């Protein structure tokens, strides 16, 4: 087949353009091109041109085109005929490595043609191990094979889409309209709502639900090994179907494992891990397939075809999946299950597994660690609530990062980030890396530039840490890297070069409840062009968990805006609440606050009033806890200022509580009855709750929709 010359924009238009009708349009277009600023693609070509001859050639060609130096019309007509013939053979070429038109092959040096770039890995790392092009027949596994058209992956459809400027402008407006609703599987009080058109029913008809056949078979076997019988109607299969749509997802009513929701938590974890594995394997398959084509046809390579999108199959760096988790104990559960869900072909050997269990677990060996997490022996301090023990008894380290790499030898834990396929980290762990890169010029976090799936699990626990770390990490994703890192510029997807990667990143946000900070992240920093889908549920509230007969008095204060809410709350407290405390001779007053900011404001106010108080915040030293609790119990201090994070991390039984004042309702609704239940039995037990109309979400979590007895609370809102 003769070599095809690359068509310039003018040559492509020549055979079909009516010159008389479009002459004015061409002149205007030429002016726009002449005055256009250099694109990110041009800037990157200039930056890398001195290091790579192929890149330099591409840059020179683009410059010639801008100056009007184009191919002849005869060459253009010949090229159009070649394109037409190529389009006719595209469908057959998709699944056939032996059929690869020379005109579609990106130019490469013969010495480089048999080597995979850094992003694709080397043959020593075993890229063939990640390729499922030689899938065995799995038609016996509960799912019939479908025709070739239905096997087109959601990944390909998602990443091959080209955004128009109007779409980008619409996304940047951040105005989302949820236009459809779909009941959640096996849940009567929940439903999925999404933007755009409903996609869930279409996903149900895809062969293997869009999974690689070998991965689908292994997942099905793992499900049955755990006693599952209705896979196609299971929650994990249903949630996977939503993940595979590549929509941004917010599931903020997940019952976590430490709140007796082990089954639901595991189902969702399995779904997003299978989705991540499928994304990694499918991406690697495409790169390996293209490398084979390039190696086979290196003699017929045409350097003029370097701009062809057919072989743009990667980002700047290798990592494609980032999973943010709050604690090392949770990370251990995720990695353990990830290994179990990986097909046997890809996990013949797991490197550094013992080291992983020593650092992320309790030091147990691999064989001992196969015991279910629920069977782990209880902590010595059995006075702690069960949810506290389940969450913190294993490993409460919140500073960790780990890279996971798939090779022909199996899975490598603790791989270098630039050669890893997946990164699992805590927000604090990545914040430390980002800070080091800002200080030391030789360090960088460019491995975050090509993340295509971001999973934030147990976001509710991260709220108890420092949510600003999560925001910083998300804002750091999908930026332009500071170095080349061995990437082949001719193989990078065009939307990476154009700075549009954030519009293609899928974000999966999971937690047991929502709050304004989580909503803001989902609405402001998740800009996936595919759309958004979120779960809506009816809350049951927690009032039945209050075990004592205490009066709960809801006191509403007025505020005009969010900016004035904090000042209005403090003003109401100082004018309506504190005078009664000051005039009373009764001690044992606990003031509960949900944020450290409120803690500091109240501390300063109480100091200004010469009040008798002690502090129990999240930053209290452990050797001071007993002293503070003793002072409050003995009546030496009239008031205790107590924070939600201190309750989350310590969960001590505070004795001597006569009155509770909830300055701001807790983020975690299960804390509300725990705080009220701290009241000691007396004839005048009462709890006063301050709230405004802006606290509607928290009030609904704690008090509403329980029984008609508390309907008056709704009237305040």
Beta-strand content bin: 5-15%
Global outline: elongated
Q: What's the helix count? A: 26
Strands across the major sheet, in which order? 1-2-11-3-10-9-4-8-6-7-5
Output mean pLDDT: 78
- What's the count of strands? 17
Helix content: 25-40%
How does the helix and strand content classify structurally?
A: alpha/beta
Given as residue ranges, the uncertain stretches (5+ residues, pLDDT < 50) are 1-36, 69-124, 134-141, 143-151, 363-381, 705-717
* Cα distance spanning the termini: 75 Å
Main pleated-sheet profile: 11 strands, mixed
Structural overview:
This protein is of the alpha/beta class and 717 residues long. 40% of the residues lie in helices and 11% in strands. It has an 11-stranded mixed β-sheet with strand order 1-2-11-3-10-9-4-8-6-7-5. The protein has a 6-stranded parallel β-sheet with strand order 12-17-16-13-15-14, sandwiched between helices. Helix 11 (262-296) crosses helix 12 (328-341). It is elongated, with a radius of gyration of 30 Å. It starts with 8 loop residues before the first helix and ends with a helix. Residues 1-36, 69-124, 134-141, 143-151, 363-381 and 705-717 have low confidence and may be disordered.
């Amino acid at each position: 087949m003769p070599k095809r010359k690359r068509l310039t924009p003018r040559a492509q238009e020549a055979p079909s353009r009516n010159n008389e009708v479009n002459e004015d349009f061409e002149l205007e277009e030429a002016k726009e091109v002449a005055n256009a600023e250099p694109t990110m693609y041009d800037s990157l070509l200039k930056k890398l041109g001195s290091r790579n001859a192929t890149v330099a050639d591409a840059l020179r060609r683009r410059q010639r085109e801008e100056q009007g130096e184009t191919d002849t019309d005869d060459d253009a007509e010949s090229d159009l005929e070649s394109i037409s013939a190529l389009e006719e053979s595209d469908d057959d070429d998709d699944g056939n490595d032996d059929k690869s038109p020379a005109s579609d092959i990106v130019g490469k040096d013969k010495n480089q043609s048999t080597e995979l770039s850094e992003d694709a890995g080397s043959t020593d790392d075993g890229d063939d191990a990640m390729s499922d092009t030689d899938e065995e027949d799995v038609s016996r596994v509960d799912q019939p094979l479908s025709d070739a058209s239905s096997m087109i992956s959601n990944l390909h459809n998602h990443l091959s889409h080209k955004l128009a400027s109007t779409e980008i402008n619409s996304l940047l407006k951040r105005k989302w309209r949820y236009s459809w609703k779909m009941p959640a599987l096996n849940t009567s009080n929940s439903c999925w709502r999404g933007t755009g058109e409903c996609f869930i029913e279409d996903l149900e008809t895809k062969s293997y639900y869009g999974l690689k056949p070998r991965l689908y078979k292994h997942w099905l076997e793992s499900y049955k090994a755990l006693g599952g019988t209705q896979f196609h109607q299971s929650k994990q299969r249903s949630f996977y179907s939503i993940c595979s749509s590549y929509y941004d997802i917010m599931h903020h009513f997940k019952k976590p494992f430490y709140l007796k929701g082990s089954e639901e938590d595991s189902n969702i974890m399995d779904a997003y891990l299978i989705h991540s594995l499928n994304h990694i394997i499918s991406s690697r398959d495409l790169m390996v397939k293209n490398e084979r084509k390039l190696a086979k046809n290196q003699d017929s390579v045409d350097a003029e075809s370097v701009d062809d999108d057919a072989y743009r199959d990667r980002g700047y760096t290798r990592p494609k999946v980032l999973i943010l988790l709050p604690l090392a104990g949770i990370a251990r559960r995720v990695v353990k299950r990830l290994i179990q869900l990986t097909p046997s072909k890809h996990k013949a050997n797991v490197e550094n597994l013992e080291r992983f269990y020593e650092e992320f677990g309790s030091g147990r060996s691999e064989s001992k660690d196969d015991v279910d997490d629920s069977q782990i022996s209880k902590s010595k301090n059995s006075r702690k609530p069960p949810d506290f023990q389940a969450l913190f008894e294993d490993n409460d380290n919140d500073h960790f990062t780990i890279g996971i790499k798939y090779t022909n030898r199996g899975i490598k834990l603790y791989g270098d980030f630039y050669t890893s396929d997946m990164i699992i980290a805590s927000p604090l762990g990545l914040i430390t890396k980002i800070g080091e890169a800002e200080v030391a010029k030789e360090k960088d976090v460019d491995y975050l530039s090509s993340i295509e799936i971001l999973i934030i699990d147990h976001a509710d626990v991260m709220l108890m840490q420092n949510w600003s770390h999560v925001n910083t990490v998300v804002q750091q994703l999908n930026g332009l890297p500071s170095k080349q890192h061995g990437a082949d510029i001719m193989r990078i997807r065009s939307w990476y070069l154009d700075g549009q990667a954030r519009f293609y990143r899928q974000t999966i946000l999971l937690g047991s409840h929502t709050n304004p900070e989580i909503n803001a992240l989902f609405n402001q920093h998740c800009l996936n062009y595919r759309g958004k889908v979120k779960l809506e549920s009816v809350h049951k509230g927690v009032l039945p968990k209050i075990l004592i007969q205490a009066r709960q008095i809801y006191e509403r204060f007025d505020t005009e805006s969010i900016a004035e809410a904090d000042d209005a709350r403090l003003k109401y407290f100082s004018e309506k609440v504190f005078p009664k405390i000051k005039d009373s001779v009764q001690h044992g007053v606990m003031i509960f606050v949900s944020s450290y900011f409120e803690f500091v404001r109240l501390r300063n106010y109480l100091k200004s009033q010469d009040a008798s108080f002690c502090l129990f915040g999240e930053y209290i030293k452990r050797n001071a806890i007993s002293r503070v609790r003793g002072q409050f119990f003995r009546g030496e201090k009239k008031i205790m200022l107590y924070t939600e994070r201190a309750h989350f991390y310590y969960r001590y039984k505070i004795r001597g509580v006569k009155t509770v004042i909830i300055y701001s309702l807790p983020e975690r609704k299960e804390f509300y009855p725990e705080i009220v239940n701290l009241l000691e039995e007396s004839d005048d037990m009462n709890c006063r709750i301050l709230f405004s109309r802006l606290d509607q979400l928290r009030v609904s979590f704690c008090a509403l929709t329980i029984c008609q007895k508390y309907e008056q609370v709704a009237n305040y809102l």
